[in-house]
Design goal:
Layout (H helix, E strand, L loop, with lengths): L1 H21 L1 E8 L5 E8 L5 E5 L4 E8 L5 E3 L1 E2 L4 H5 L8 E2 L5 E2 L3 E4 L2 E4 L8 E2 L12 E6 L4 E9 L10 E9 L4 E10 L3 E2 L3 E2 L2 E2 L13 E4 L3 E5 L5 E7 L11 E2 L15 E5 L12 E4 L5 E7 L3 E5 L8 E2 L5 E2 L6 E5 L14 E2 L5 E11 L3
Antiparallel strand pairs: 1-2, 2-3, 3-4, 4-5, 6-18, 7-17, 8-11, 9-10, 12-13, 13-14, 14-15, 15-31, 16-30, 19-22, 19-24, 20-21, 20-23, 23-26, 24-25, 25-31, 26-29, 27-28
Bound molecules: alpha-D-galactopyranose.
Length: 373
């Protein structure tokens, strides 16, 4: 009796272990222009959901999730090969830092010193500069626990990298859980005070990547305010109510319903929402997106105070993506969790300064489910 139990426990343990180990497969994906080896990790959970991550940019390469009939599709807009990711592209799936979004006039002052950054968005700095975290090859290790599997990416951003102060040790841990959620946990420490604001720039299309526009998707964003901006998308420092405007998604609305009313060139959503306090403890979603034909639903949870909703306004058909698809305007949407844009120059916004001795941490989860037709 006792022997049988031990034996059974042994078998159970072995099977749990081997199935978890098989769930993270690391394979070579090519080399950067500098000759660094890039690897791709394939994670698979007990439901068959698959996520692929690459060391270049700590990038989400694909997410395969079922529709309401069980049919799988890759919902990530991007590339099949490393060559694609090495070209100039609008941040497909990448980890963005040291400071995501914009820093006005590409400069800031900290502890009485002025810092100048590369202006790569008109006069402003966007998404970490000329060679942000999304263009760096990260160190990676797989993490396997009884129920979950993941990859931890690490690197040190040296003092002076892209003009920012301090050596920053970074970690980004992606975990695929058995309830079809991809959790992203960021951590950082520094030896000098520095601004830090990290996000992921995945473009989603819940009908499947390359499968038309996202204009029929329905979205709800748990925010009654946005950070008001000038026409170059630099916040004024004021918060503005969304009520009565085309950016009000406090109730589900079709992304395409009022998009043409947005006054921007090119036309589309590119707004930072001020999330309601109820989303901060990860219990209430910051946003939910539904695709009516497939029934696929994505919920976004985050500890961050802001969410940039971007509808791929700049995609113009010039990029050849997965399976030869060309990506046109509105072929994907981004929900980038973050602190507000230009926080380093806005005393009234929650601070993005990380000081020596402190630990930065932030969590965002993209959870997938389906609803019946
Ligand atoms: C962010 C910005 C957009 C644009 C895209 C990438 O979402 O807010 O303005 O730069 O990245 O093209």
């Amino acid at each position: 009796m006792i022997l049988r139990f031990i034996c059974l426990a042994g078998v159970l343990m072995t099977s749990t272990f081997s199935s978890a180990a098989d769930d993270v497969i690391r394979t070579p994906f090519g080399k950067t222009k500098e000759g660094e080896a890039v690897d791709i990790f394939t994670l698979q959970n007990s439901k068959g959901m698959k996520v692929r991550l690459i060391t270049f940019g700590a990038t989400i390469q694909s997410i395969e999730v079922p529709d309401n009939k069980g049919k799988m599709a890759d919902v990530i807009v991007g590339f099949d090969t490393l060559e694609g990711f090495l070209t100039e592209h609008p941040y497909f799936g990448g980890t963005i830092g040291r400071v995501c979004n914009r820093i006005g006039n590409a400069k800031f002052s900290l502890d009485g010193k002025e810092y100048s950054l590369a202006a790569n968005n008109g006069p402003h700095s966007l998404h970490g500069g000329k060679k942000g975290f999304d263009r760096k090859n990260w160190i990676a290790e797989s993490i396997i626990t009884t129920n979950d599997r993941g990859v931890r990416f690490t690197r040190t951003s040296a003092d002076g990298e892209e003009g920012y102060p301090g050596n920053v040790r970074l970690g980004v841990t992606f975990t695929l859980t058995n309830d079809n959620a991809l959790r992203i946990e960021y951590d950082a420490i520094t030896d000098k005070s520095t601004p830090i604001n990290l996000t992921n720039h995945a473009y989603f299309n819940l009908a499947g990547s390359g499968n038309g526009t996202i204009l029929d998707h329905q979205i709800m964003i748990n925010a009654t305010q946005q950070t008001a901006t000038d026409e170059t998308l630099i916040p004024t420092g004021k918060l503005a109510p969304v009520a009565g405007t085309p950016i009000d998604f406090t109730k589900y609305g079709k992304i395409g319903a009022r998009i043409k009313e947005i006054k921007a060139t090119p036309v589309g959503y590119d707004h930072n929402y001020v999330l309601e306090a109820s989303s901060k403890d990860l219990k209430a979603p910051a946003a939910v997106v539904r695709e009516p034909n497939s029934g696929r639903v994505m919920e976004v949870y985050t500890t961050e105070p802001g969410l940039q909703f971007y509808t791929g306004n700049f995609l113009d058909g010039t990029i050849k993506g997965k399976k030869g698809a060309t990506y046109n305007q509105y072929n994907g949407f981004c929900l980038e969790s973050q602190h507000y844009p230009d926080s380093v120059n806005k005393k009234e916004f929650p601070s993005t300064i990380l000081k020596p001795g402190e630990k930065f941490s932030s969590t965002t989860t993209y959870k997938f489910l389906t609803v019946a037709e």
